[in-house]
Amino acid sequence: MEEEIKEINPASKEEEELANQEIEQVNGSQAPQHEELKLSDIKELAQILNIPYLESLPEPQPPKNVVKGDFDRIVGSWARQNLTVPFGEENGTVLVATARLNNIDAFELLEACYGRPISLVAVAPEKIYETVNKIRSRLMTDKASSLESKQDEEEREDLKIDVTDAEDEDAPIIRYLNTLIFKANSQRASDIHIEPYEDKFKVRFRIDGVLYDV
């Protein structure tokens, strides 16, 4: 068990890069390849084991207070690999969704990581990917907000653009670009994507390899 827990400890830089690629893959609705799981088999096994089968999951709010292992990996690459993800808690019990009802080792590992019992529900594999995607997106947003709050005044001054020499009709555009660049920097975005349409445009930031709408 200790060896298995080590597998979900904080990742190295190389592992983080691989995880970011996996996140982008999930955001692009391209699920990692697993052996084929028939929905009928999942439902049948859930009925035999007296485990509830859910057509959909509520908005995920997985508990972060693990006693062993690394939360980011539990709800990231480990969850996708095992088709098992914590999505909430109730009366001291961790609620866990899975598409692999015979994955006893994974369930025991989660109980060891949280130090408390888990309660299982069965779902289709794509629901696992959707839930992981939601959790990872929220984690990235929270991290970006935390970084933005720590941005000091000196960095803000460095990013300001002088608009005193701009024409009156150009100044609002420059001020908007100033704001956009500052926001991208504060969220540690590597790219700013501007997609023009006929009467509007969409702005997206690339953060750790994943595109997010602004």
What does the model show?
The protein has about 210 residues and is an alpha+beta fold. The chain folds into 2 domains: about 1-140, GMP Synthetase, Chain A, domain 3; about 150-214, Beta-Lactamase (2-Layer Sandwich). It has 9 helices and 6 strands. It has helices at about 1-5, 15-25, 40-50, 70-75, 75-80, 105-115, 125-150, 155-160, 170-185; strands spanning about 85-90, 95-100, 120, 190-195, 200-205, 210-214. Strands 1-2-3 form a 3-stranded mixed sheet, with helices on both faces. The radius of gyration is 21 Å and the shape is elongated.
Q: End-to-end distance, in Å?
A: 42 Å
Q: Residue-averaged pLDDT, rounded?
A: 78
- Gross morphology is elongated
- Could you give the order of strands across the largest sheet? 1-2-3
- CATH fold-level label of the largest domain: GMP Synthetase, Chain A, domain 3
So how many helices? 9
In CATH's first tier, which class of the largest domain applies? Answer: Alpha Beta
Which structural category do the helix and sheet elements fall into? Answer: alpha+beta
N-to-C series of helices and strands: HHHHHEEHEHHHEEE
Low-pLDDT stretches are 22-33, 161-167
How many strand elements? 6
Rg over CA atoms: 21 Å
The CATH architecture of the largest domain is: 2-Layer Sandwich
* Number of spatially distinct domains: 2
Give the biggest beta sheet: 3 strands, mixed
Instruction: Determine the CATH superfamily of the largest domain.
Output: Type II secretion system, protein E, N-terminal domain
Strand content: 15-25%
